[in-house]
Every structure is written in C-alpha cells, then in structure tokens.
C-alpha cells in the first residue's frame, strides 16, 4: 500500500480528473486527497454520499485545525467524506490564500498518508491531487513520502519538453544527482500522457526515449484517454455510462498495470514496516466504521464512483449554509 502523488508542471492538463478516475477504479481501499494548494475542486464537482453537497470545512481545513500537535494516521478517517458511489475523499482547501498560512500542513500530511498505507486497523492507499508543481508549492513536501509521483502531461511538444524537464528536476531533488539511482529509488517518478490510447504506442516510445536521454530516471507509466465527454461525466457535468467511457477504461488499465508492477513491492514494504513499527491487529479489533472499504476485485476493477443508472451526477449547486464558507 502506498501514497501516489499526482501533479503537473504547468497549465491544467487534467490532474484532478486523473486523480478521481484512478481512485474510482483503484483495486484496493483508497483515500483520494485534494492536496492542491490552489484549492480543491470536488466541492464544486461532486455529490456527497448523502445526496447533498460536500462540506468544504471537513477535510484539509479540519485537519489543519486539529493537526498542529501531529496527526495519527488513522485520525485521517475522521476528516473523510464519502462521495456518491462510495469513493472516500479528503476535501481540499478553499482559495489559495488559505494554503499560504498552512505550509507546515503538507509535511504532516505526507507522513500520515504514507503511514496510513501501513495502518494495521484501516489501511488504504492514498491518491493525492497535488495540482501544479511549478514554483515553490508546498505540495512537493508530499513527494519524499510517496511511492510514486505521477506527472500528468498533454502531448504537445512544449508540454512534453516541460514534463521531461520537470521529471529531471524532481529526480535530482528527490534522489540527488547520482545517475541511475533515480530509476530505482523511491519515489519513482512516472509520466502519464493524456492522449488517444489507441494510437499512443509510438508516442510512448518516443517520450520514453526522451526521458532516458535526459537521464530523468522517469518513464511513461501509461496513457489516460483524452476524453472530454468522460471528463465531463466524471465531473457531473454530463450524463452517460461513465464506466464504459474511454477515460475510465484507460484509468482502469493504468491502475491495473501499476498494481501489477508495484503492488507486491508496496505490500512487502508495508509488511516490513508493520513488523518493525506497529503491532499486528488483534482479531475482532478492527473499527467497524472503517469497514465499508471498496472490496478488492481480483483482476476486475469496478469503479467506485458510478453515477446511479438513470440518475446522473448532479452538478454542484451552491447552497446557502452548506458551502461557500471560506471560499
Ligand atoms: N483526460 C481528459 N480528457 C479530456 N478532457 C479532460 C481530461 N482531463 C481533464 N479534462 C478537462 O480539462 C479541464 C481541466 O481538468 P482538471 O482535471 O480540473 O485539470 P487540472 O486538475 O490539471 O487543473 C476540465 O475541463 C476537464 O473536463
Ligand atoms: Mg486540479
């Protein structure tokens, strides 16, 4: 189990969409964390499990209020809200100015997210939407705690050049200058291209060559479909069969590939950590409230974020008293 951080160099290539799509099809229990210092989007895009809007005050903001004296990983669950469909989310901050006063929150979150993966009671992977990482964003403080940092990129030449340079910069920062180390060390830096998956084989090879040539230590881990209709459905702006969309199908492939390649290593490192640092759970001691996790479907990943049939996701409706506080 692991922390997987998603980010982009510049622009708005679809980090939030990718984070939601991957979390929705993740084969184990997963917590989707909106750690973009520019502010979260889910409050505006998604419906809570109770049918109303998400509460913007429960999530990073409530953690910030209570975590000044540290954060026990399992406490994270106290700040989680389930979306319609069951996906468990930590709602992000409001406007960017909020994050400016809370820069020390990110290292605390990084440690807790990584340790949540190894929790004997309610373990989960964490998929963190870090937004843009150009400049000196505090979100980079999560990266040293991650198993995988995924950089999202569109495929215009300038976007590819930027993701190459960003990957090189991150590898140097995370792994030091030593050549070759970046390809093996944790966190791995991966690139996810947003493109038409059907015709992307050649492009993936070209980008991989470019990443190797620039000694970034990064490689392309998959292609997420450039699927505006799927992205609109995922954001509740459009109705349709989300589970059949190119976006969700491509996310399922990436999730399966990542778990096939790294799942065993993540589980081993989690066990090793538990053995060293944590007590094994006693039978019957698991807290009930954390038991409605997504089931593991061996080889068959069901999106946990499915609009009910005939009932499209409602677009976000501002409602007095529910949202708007701090935004
Ligand atoms: N895979 C995708 N295919 C097509 N459009 C997408 C995709 N991902 C995102 N979009 C669209 O791009 C815009 C930005 O998406 P978002 O996920 O908010 O990006 P970011 O988090 O990088 O700012 C939205 O209009 C969204 O619908
Ligand atoms: Mg975003």
Describe the structure.
The protein is of the alpha/beta class and 327 residues long. Helix content is 35%, strand content 14%. The chain is built from ten helices and eight strands. The chain has helices at residues 15-25, 42-45, 60-66, 96-100, 105-116, 157-175, 181-184, 201-213, 228-234, 246-277, and strands at 3-8, 30-34, 81-82, 88-90, 125-132, 148-153, 188-195, 219-225. An eight-stranded mixed sheet has the order 3-4-2-5-1-6-7-8, sandwiched between helices. The longest helix has 32 residues, at 246-277. The model is unreliable at 275-303 and 306-327 (pLDDT under 50). Bound molecules: adenosine-5'-diphosphate and magnesium ion (MG). Magnesium ion binds at residues 15-16, 36, 41, 129, 131. Adenosine-5'-diphosphate is lined by residues 8, 12-17, 41, 194, 224-228, 231-232, 235, 247.
Give short descriptive properties of this protein.
8-stranded mixed β-sheet, 8 strands, disordered C terminus, 327 residues, alpha/beta, binds magnesium ion, globular, binds adenosine-5'-diphosphate, 10 helices
Topology:
Blueprint lengths: L2 E6 L6 H11 L4 E5 L7 H4 L14 H7 L14 E2 L5 E3 L5 H5 L4 H12 L8 E8 L15 E6 L3 H19 L5 H4 L3 E8 L5 H13 L5 E7 L2 H7 L11 H32 L50
Parallel strand pairs: 1-5, 1-6, 2-4, 2-5, 6-7, 7-8
Antiparallel strand pairs: 3-4
Adenosine-5'-diphosphate binds next to helix 1, strand 8 and helix 9.
